[in-house]
Design a protein that fits this description.
Number of strands: 0
Distance between the termini: 40 Å
Order of helices and strands: HHHHHHHHHHHHH
Oligomer: single chain
Structural class: mainly alpha
Largest sheet: none
Radius of gyration: 21 Å
Helix content: over 70%
Number of helices: 13
Length: 423
């Protein structure tokens, strides 16, 4: 008698529930620490904290391009290319250290505070080490290790937020909480720390850079400009006070953004394994499930945001911020998030198929549209409306991904046809 098979929807729930659940706790912790900032800090402090989180998210994108995506692909190849893995660990260490220094300088100058700079610089360094650890766990099919790290990070940061709320403190105290949480969240990776960092010759990185990382880096930088160009431009042109209402709007969508980033990290190696083994149907099935989960997460996030704005608006939009600007930003951010949910599964599938150049090309065009749109809006309208430029860029990016996916499917059909003719 054959054992009863688990229904497919149960498998999907287990697969996505673990990643989404642990990421949701991280989102709650970030939400809590930003609410504390809103309660305790001036508008400039709220804006600086939000900008620090944007910088750390950019670091995750750089790590994905230079280390994580190539690692996910090489780790599942049997052609000897896995010899480049030690080099990727060395690149990870160099990237984490260098980016930590950069974030520390930017935040220290922006806040005119050495402790703030040191705190967020150390946070960026530890966060990138942990990010690569999560990627390694997913590539090794050990999602529990990544989930435990997320839960530790969320618990410690959440408790720290409560302490700052009760005892008081400034931006430097909040930065210290990020350092402690990021450091202790590395504990689940203690037994594999040697596989996360290392020293090796960078020579083996040349083919990785040529074939994957260079195009992925272009894609990340231009995608960051397409997605968060307003954050940099508004902060640079108008100051952190002007960015504060936009950062509060982004706070509502933070849970969704964290889940999208985390799910991308686990779905990319899964799709890469399937495509490497010739299981294209399985990769396509993963893409569809991924899309469904993201749309459900988007709907839940929007419902939560609408409920909070309706029931407890004063909690997240204090009198020191312009409520109208926050409302405009929330609506535009929600539409942008929907487009990102629609395009992300196909983008991850193209990454797993090693189509980094096509993605980078689409991203470069979208970047130009976003930057031009944001600058144009800021010359005549309030900062919240700058998101219109981001929306236009996301629409261009979505079309580019559709075109790139169609081209990949066409190339695949032609390859299969040639193989059949030669058989």
């Amino acid at each position: 008698m054959n054992p009863r098979r688990t229904p497919p929807w149960i498998d999907v729930l287990r697969r996505y529930g673990l990643v989404s659940g642990s990421s949701a706790f991280v989102s709650v912790a970030h939400f809590a620490i930003q609410l504390v900032a809103i309660a305790r800090l001036p508008a400039s402090g709220v804006g600086l904290l939000a900008f620090a989180i944007v910088l750390i998210q950019l670091g995750f994108g750089l790590s994905n391009a230079l280390v994580c995506a190539p690692y996910s692909i090489l780790a599942h190849r049997a052609d000897g290319s896995a010899d480049g893995l030690p080099t990727l660990r060395a690149i990870n260490l160099a990237l984490s250290a260098g980016y930590g220094v950069l974030v520390g300088i930017v935040m220290g100058v922006g806040a005119s505070s050495l402790p703030v700079g040191l705190g967020f610089g150390a946070t960026a360094f530890l966060a990138l080490i942990r990010w690569f650890g999560r990627n390694h766990a997913y590539a090794a099919d050990q999602p529990m290790r990544a989930a435990l790290s997320d839960l530790l990070y969320a618990a410690i940061l959440g408790l720290w937020a409560g302490g700052v709320l009760l005892l008081g403190g400034g931006l430097a105290h909040i930065a210290a909480g990020f350092v402690v949480a990021s450091l202790l969240a590395l504990v689940p990776f203690g037994s594999v720390i040697g596989e996360l960092v290392g020293i090796a010759s960078f020579g083996a990185y040349r083919p990785i850079w040529r074939d994957q990382a260079s195009w992925a880096l272009v894609g990340v930088v231009t995608s960051e400009a397409t997605t968060n160009g307003h954050a940099y431009l508004v902060t640079a042109m108008l100051g952190p006070d002007a960015f504060a209402p936009l950062s509060v709007a982004a706070l509502f969508l933070r849970p969704l953004n964290v889940c999208v980033t985390a799910l991308t990290q686990t779905e990319r190696p899964r799709m890469a394994r399937d495509l490497s083994a010739g299981r294209v149907d399985a990769a396509e099935r993963s893409r569809r499930h991924f899309l469904l989960v993201l749309l459900l997460l988007w709907a839940g996030t929007i419902a939560l945001a609408a409920g909070m704005l309706w029931l407890v608006p004063g909690t997240v939009v204090p009198a020191k911020l312009d409520a109208r600007s926050v409302e405009i930003a929330v609506v535009l951010t929600g539409v942008i998030a929907l487009l990102q949910c629609l395009m992300t599964p196909s983008s991850v599938l193209l990454q797993a198929a090693d189509r980094f150049r096509a993605l980078a090309t689409a991203s470069m065009v979208a970047c130009g549209v976003s930057i031009a749109g944001v600058v144009l809006v800021l010359t005549s309208l309030a900062a919240a409306w700058s998101l219109i430029g981001i929306l236009l860029g996301q629409m261009v990016m979505m079309w580019g991904i559709v075109v790139a996916e169609r081209r990949w499917r066409r190339d695949r059909r032609e390859t299969v046809s040639r193989e059949r003719n030669h058989a």
